[in-house]
């Protein structure tokens, strides 16, 4: 049996209410392929990943179909993302106790390339977690702060990567803090990666048209790279 120290999880549950379709958006056809298939096909190219897990809604018919169609190992998700996240952790703990690093990605973000995953697995040799970030280019408004500075904030997106020992110690799925790393104490070291381009999430029908265009023009997607000047490293040793 192979050792699965590096595990990649694709979160593909949810109902896609905001998308407004008559099926969960992970099964929406995008340029003739299910949205979920893009992430499965791309993540399988990773040279650092030992095992791929897909988290699905608790729908036996869909679970059977996805297993048969894509040959993936499935974890049953929860009613919300946080519980799907936790279910995946519990599954890894029970089935792959040798796991040391885990990356969570979202099927709704089909444009992320496998080299990002390889980069994140490598960064976890030095850092406790890696978060995908995007700078804010517009002005910010606030209900509680008179003049917030956009330079003080950034957006956090999937994928997100962790040393699993840190997650098991500090992550709580019932917390009102949504992003796992924001639950960590300030001495936990993180790497903020700003190098993913076009990390679009399928949320509305308008997003689908843009995603289809970008998939049809693969040269517009950007591979992970640390020496382009786009990435920025911060040791997160500040109080949140």
Describe how the helices and strands are arranged.
Layout: E1 6-11, E2 29-30, E3 33-34, H1 35-43, E4 51-56, H2 60-70, E5 73-76, H3 81-95, E6 101-106, H4 114-123, E7 129-135, E8 154-163, H5 164-170, E9 190-193, H6 205-216
Parallel strand pairs: 1-4, 1-6, 4-5, 7-9
Antiparallel strand pairs: 2-3, 6-8, 7-8
Strand content: 15-25%
Helical content (DSSP H or I, runs of 4+): 25-40%
Q: What's the total helix number? A: 6
| E-strand count | 9
Main sheet: strands, sense, barrel: 7 strands, mixed
Please, what is the average pLDDT? 89
Oligomer description: single chain
Poorly predicted segments:
227-240
The strand order across the widest sheet is 5-4-1-6-8-7-9
| N-end to C-end Cα span | 42 Å
Whole-angstrom Rg: 18 Å
**Which structural class do the helices and strands define?**
alpha/beta
Morphology call: globular
Order of helices and strands: EEEHEHEHEHEEHEH
């Amino acid at each position: 049996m192979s050792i699965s120290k590096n595990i990649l999880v694709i979160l593909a549950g949810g109902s896609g209410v905001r998308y407004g379709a008559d099926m969960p958006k992970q099964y929406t056809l995008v340029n003739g392929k299910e949205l979920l298939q893009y992430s499965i096909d791309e993540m399988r190219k990773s040279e650092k990943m030992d095992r791929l897990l897909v988290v699905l809604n608790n729908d036996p018919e869909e679970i059977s179909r996805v297993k048969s169609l894509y040959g993936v190992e499935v974890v049953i998700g929860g009613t919300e993302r946080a519980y799907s996240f936790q279910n995946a952790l519990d599954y890894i703990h029970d089935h792959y106790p040798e796991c040391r690093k885990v990356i969570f990605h979202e099927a709704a973000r089909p444009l992320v390339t496998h080299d990002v995953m390889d980069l994140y697995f490598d960064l976890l040799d030095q850092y406790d977690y890696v978060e995908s970030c995007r700078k804010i280019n517009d002005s910010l408004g606030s209900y509680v702060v008179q003049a917030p500075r956009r330079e003080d904030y950034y957006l956090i997106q999937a994928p997100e990567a962790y040393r699993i020992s840190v997650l098991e110690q500090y992550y709580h799925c019932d917390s009102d803090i949504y992003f796992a790393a924001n639950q960590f104490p300030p001495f936990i070291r993180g790497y903020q990666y700003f190098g993913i381009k076009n990390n679009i999430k399928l949320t509305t029908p308008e997003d689908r048209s843009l995603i289809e265009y970008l998939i049809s023009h693969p040269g517009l997607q950007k591979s992970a790279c640390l020496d382009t000047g786009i990435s920025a490293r911060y040791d997160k040793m500040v109080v949140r």
